[in-house]
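Lecture 7 notes: from sequence to structure.
We start with the chain below.
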Amino acid sequence: MSNEQMKYAIDCSRVSDSRNAGDTHERQEEQSKLVKLRVESQYNCKIEIVKTFEITKSATVAFEIQPLLEPLKFCEEWNKNNPDKRIEFAFFRSIDRLTRGGAVIYGQLTALFAEIGITILDAWGVIGTSKINTLEYLGVDYKWSIYNPSFVNQLITAEGAKDSVRISLSSMIGAEIKYVRMGYSVGPSHVGLRNEKIDTSSGRRVVEVPDEHSKHFNWFKMMYEDSASRNYSNEEITTRLNQDGFLTPKTKIHDKTDPNNIIGFKGGIPLDVEQMLRYRENPIYAGVNVEKWTDAANHRTTKREEYKALKLYSPGFPGLVSTELWNAANKGRWEIIENGAEVFVVRDEGFSPHPRRDDIETVFPWKFFLDPNCRQPLNAYDTTKKNGKKYGAYGCHGPHRAKKFGKHYFRVTTKEMDKTVKKFIKNLKFKDEVIMHWKKYLIEEWNSMLLKAKKKSQSTQEKVTELEQIEIMWREKFKWASTQEGFRTIEEELSKLAIEKAKALNNREEKELKALDVQTAVNFCGYFFENMEDLILGHSNPLKRGAMLKVIFKEIPTYTELKEGRAQLEDCVEYIATHKVRKSNVCDPTGIRTLDQEIKSLLLYH
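Predicted structure tokens for the same chain:
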């Protein structure tokens, strides 16, 4: 053995996932030892393994991020720095451990190893080392005349390794798509839901059901109920959820090139309005699935989007909320429509994510009034003079209307229109029986709101008690702490508990402050019943002022009828030309009107 020559090599093993128990690095390295013994016998040498590479990455990727490029780079640097100990061999168990990118990528990789003088060998014997010169009988050779007779077989095996991925994925993903279209769940559950195995006609299958023991379940119920009630804006709903402790789920961020490498975390933060809308508009919470695997066809027209959906297989579990509550919460944006066995999720016709140009630059809230000549809705005009100032007006003229209704002309400035509307509203009054009915309803609704606030306060107190118990537990641990690091850890935990406890106490105090006297609420709302000018014109959104005024008319009046007080009103409202505004003493300087805007919201949106 003293005449044996020393040669150097690397050993490579690769698995796509560290959780794969069927094909581990240890098993591959045991089979690679057979290659080492075979080479030692063939070349009458001794092989020293310079480095063993244990790669945990997928090889079904582009050439630029192939996992084998890492050992290739190592070999290049080693041979450059150690000319007397050049690496000559690279051992693998089989070609599919080298790459699953197919024949093209396999050919590129083997060519790069060959350029630096390294021969790739596998334990399964597919890669041969013998080379044949087709012109050997003439005593000459060229690059093209020397070839490896096993290379064609290598390419076929490499392409087969790529095919096996497609076959496996087609079988697995195809079965999952089939189960999804049957209404079953595949993959992780959505927030607020959980996966549960049940017995079905197709065997034991996984379905999504509401996770009643999770905090997100209660938060989502509150989100849908608050949205459906129309008492709160999207911003207020988001704030209420965050005050109750809502945090988005915390998930891992994986490296794109190495899915097993966790590079960070996302989530675990308070909710924002955009995320709240994504949760609320997801039909999965009403037991309806629109994901791609359900064959949810997306039909787009000029005004609406329509998705063919699928009901989840959930006997006894229709969803976290009912279809009716989901539709009420998403009114004006989305609607679930069931037509026999078919289910559709339809975008509301009136929804527009981008406001019109008129609504951005100059708002015209009174365009619904009619022209006295043709009784058609007025147009709005926004004219910019030479001095740069804009002058708005309402009018009705032009060839498109003259052709249909005859030539006519009508125009009134926005200033004059606002003056006319304000004068008309000053003479409006709710009938006495309507005011009595609303006061009775308000008392009942207000008491219901106070009851909910009381329950919230009790829930917060329970959380405070729980934090106090945890604090006592950590203080007890001081007796057993023996190191400086232990004391520091306990102090950090106590500091976190103190912050959480302070937040919980603050939330409880805010909820208790909201419990105003019901008579104060009734008197406050009575002011707006008796002063419709503040009720309608007091809204900050001009478009909502127009919407509120519009609902009091039986028939939309012309501008002349509005100005003369001859508009036909709903039965709950009356027009009194001599009506004088009575300033109620409940709008006093104590700040009640500013303090409790929730009462006004309750009145306007019920």
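Points to note: The longest strand covers residues 45-56. Residues 297-304, 354-362, 579-606 have pLDDT under 50 and may be disordered.
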